[in-house]
Amino acid sequence: MMMIPLDNPYSAYIGSAYIITLLSGSVFAILTILKLRAIKKRVKRLEQASRHNDR
Amino acid sequence: MRIIASPKQFLHFKKRFLPFCVACHILTLSFGLWFAFWGSPPDYQMGEAVRMMYIHVPASWFAMGVYALMALHAVIGLITKHPLADIIVKSAAPIGALFTFISLITGALWGKPMWGTWWVWDARLTSVLILFLLYVGYLALIRSFENQVQGLKAGSILVIVGAFNLPIIKWSVNWWNTLHQPASLTKLSAPSIHPEMLVPLFLMVGAYASYFISMLLLRIEAEHLKRREQNLYFLKAQSASL
Q1: What is the pTM of this model?
Q2: Which of B142, B134, B126, B157 lies closest to B223, judged by CA?
Q3: Any chain A CB within 8 A of the CB of B83?
Q4: Do residue A17 and residue B52 have CB atoms under 8 angstroms apart?
Q5: Three-class SS string for B3-62?
Q6: ipTM of the complex
């Protein structure tokens, strides 16, 4: 098993690149899920209201 | 297309397909990261800095691939007037912008130790920056119209016009003298990358692909729900006026 040496001169650049990629991907996924949940809630409320009005 | 057309069918498809995509993403990302850091050798020229390739190259491929997908659906949307084509274009745009952002940032972080600079205004880097601006421009344009249909139509035209940037990105390294290295994997002759480096690269491509499909499914569902919400508001306003 090869191992990346921590004292290599590029570790700061490599680490930053991976952290930025993983963080931005995670934040984007979380925001997408939260946005979807919020729309689902709004639609559910509207559907309930329209059913209530029908009665 | 037909599966996404009916919201009911789409939800059924999404329910079955999304867990598979998420599982694929977790697996390919875990193995990809392991191989990227521990399972692959350093490059004989770049040394350890080659590990940047495993996140930068797939991000760049998907930045271009997503735009090509958007352009294809923009053409379909303009010809057939099918609203689903617009939904796909609109849902894919933020994901493509994210991939382009990752490509630019990781490229700068790779460029500093290799070229001695974060950024140069050479053909490849500038054309990728233009791609990012096209994504952002599309998102801004569709939001600037009060009439959503008109906004999406204008956005589709922008996407189609912007598609001319894709061959420029691809062949800029061959047409002009650039700091960026030419293609080493997608050239027509045999790839000049060691097979041990191809394993993490393709695992990361799998991770990006499964991430893209998962996010696209979620955003298409959100877009379907937004349209349902608008219809419900319209019905509510109509019943209130009666």
Answers
A1: 0.90
A2: B142
A3: no
A4: yes
A5: HHHCHHHHHHHHHHHHHHHHHHHHHHHHHHHHHHHHHCCCECCCEHHHHHHHHHHHHHHH
A6: 0.88
